[in-house]
Amino acid sequence: MISIPSLQCSRPNLWLRDHCQCSSCVHEVTKQRLLDTFEIPRDITMQSLSETQEGFNVKCWWSDGHDSYYPKNWLNKFARGDSSRERQGINKASLWTSSIAESLPKVYFKDVMDTDQGVGQWLLNLRIYGFCFVEGCPPTPQDTERLLKRIAFIRQTHYGGFWDFTSDLASKDTAYTQISLEAHTDTTYFSDPAGLQLFHLLSHTHGSGGASLLVDGFKAAQTLKQEDPKAYDMLSTIRLYSHASGNEDTSLQPYQSFPVLNHDVGTGELIQVRWNNSDRAAIDAPFSEVQNWYNAAEKWVQILRDPSMEYWEQLKPGMPLIFDNWRVLHGRSSFTGKRRLCGGYINRDDYISRFKMTNLGRAAVLESVIG
């Protein structure tokens, strides 16, 4: 165990030896482990331990003949258990209600397209608020696709990759109709639901309506927990199946059932809302629990439908909307006429990677990876 004053590290010797970061233990370019963990003696010991002359690192001589250097701030970080939040790119979320309309998170198309700093601010807004508008985007599919690819590659699904669609039921989903849609998250029928979703209204002719609805799922969950803790627990434990079976050649279903509210197993924080009553299939619970789930879900829907929770916006050409599909529920009012939209999905892992790289920097990200 480390015992230098100013360090509070109680990691086992085997763990410390296994996490040596020298070039013979970790590839300098790929950052992949080169050390054969299972050739380290189980009873390995430190022969000596000292601080380097600069005082930033600790040098350890091991009984297997290897020398290791460890940054002191790195050792302290893992002693405090700080790495989990950095791994996930957790940022302090600002929960909101309908009053968010008074101060909307926005960035400018030119800033996002010209600099990684602009991308970083865009993604920071997403981490804080769960959604963001982009002003000044040319109202074309080509420019919108370029914008979305500033984050990462666009996710391919049964809808295709980048969408450019109208309400023609080209895909057998209610999104491709003119009817209203209640607040929901997309792709609950995937084992790994899409992380981000972007919409850009390119045109709306010969009709009206079609206002877009956003609800902060984390705020709704917080309200449910405060008002009815048992209902919150019910939606956090009872699991649901979902499906997408409209197209004749597909019936998409996740590999297992999932609850509406999903939490990080380490920190206990709410990390994902999965709610789409239209795509819901079976309730994966004994019949003795089903009535309790319906009661909890009814309370949840009452909160989602509370006008004070709803932010409505009439989308317009030149101002794409992007939102975190693991947090923000979306919907729309019914409409007439012809609306043309484009957009796409980004995978959650790619979104968080891009956020961390543009806001934390590669050095800080890698430091949190290795522990």
From TrEMBL:
Domain TauD/TfdA-like as annotated: residue spans: 106-345
EC top class, as a word: oxidoreductase
Pathway in which the depicted protein is active: Amine and polyamine biosynthesis; carnitine biosynthesis
Reactions accelerated catalytically: N(6),N(6),N(6)-trimethyl-L-lysine + 2-oxoglutarate + O2 = (3S)-3-hydroxy-N(6),N(6),N(6)-trimethyl-L-lysine + succinate + CO2
GO cellular component: mitochondrion
Domain Gamma-butyrobetaine hydroxylase-like N-terminal: start-end pairs: 11-75
EC numbers for this chain: 1.14.11.8
Cofactor(s) needed by this chain: L-ascorbate; Fe(2+)
A single GO molecular function term of this UniProt record: iron ion binding
One of the protein's GO biological processes: carnitine biosynthetic process
Pfam families to which the protein is assigned, alphabetical: GBBH-like_N, TauD
Protein's UniProt keywords contain Ion transport: no
Entry keywords, A to Z: Carnitine biosynthesis, Dioxygenase, Iron, Metal-binding, Oxidoreductase
Protein family: Belongs to the gamma-BBH/TMLD family.
Role description: Converts trimethyllysine (TML) into hydroxytrimethyllysine (HTML).
Stated name of the protein: Trimethyllysine dioxygenase
Species this chain originates from: Lineolata rhizophorae
Species lineage: Eukaryota, Fungi, Dikarya, Ascomycota, Pezizomycotina
